Amino acid sequence: MKTLIVLRHAKAEHTPGVLDFERGLTHRGQRNAREAGVLIGPLKPDLVLSSSSKRTRQTAELLGLAAPLELDRDIYEAYTDELLVLIRQVGPEVGTLVLVGHNPSVHELVMGLTGDEVETFPPGAFAVVELPGPWSEVDSGTGTLVDTHRP
């Protein structure tokens, strides 16, 4: 059994003239990222895989998890099927993975994996999905939604 924690980056600033990729977190977003880390920490993630945009990188870092952090620019504009490809490449030694990304892809990923209707996925929200078997076999409809959290 594998555990996937899908986290949307926390609340980001909207500053005129700042490129979307370079938008950082608001004070509330920073607080919500730390709170998410407190809730995710007991699940003992083995790896955090995050988009390399500033707001996702900050979210991942503020989680304060002991797990290694890998940044991947491809997550920034990835569609759900592209996120699945990245997840399938995770090594078998990883039992619990945190994926930090962007909407609408992360929201659609959770619904696609579980078949559950997750109404909203605001900034800082996350879902915990259990997956039977190895990462290489993760596909739509193979997951079970265990928990969700909205800040």
Automatic annotation (TrEMBL):
<dbReference type="Pfam" id="PF00300">
    <property type="entry name" value="His_Phos_1"/>
</dbReference>
<dbReference type="InterPro" id="IPR029033">
    <property type="entry name" value="His_PPase_superfam"/>
</dbReference>
<protein>
    <submittedName>
        <fullName>Phosphohistidine phosphatase</fullName>
    </submittedName>
</protein>
<dbReference type="InterPro" id="IPR013078">
    <property type="entry name" value="His_Pase_superF_clade-1"/>
</dbReference>
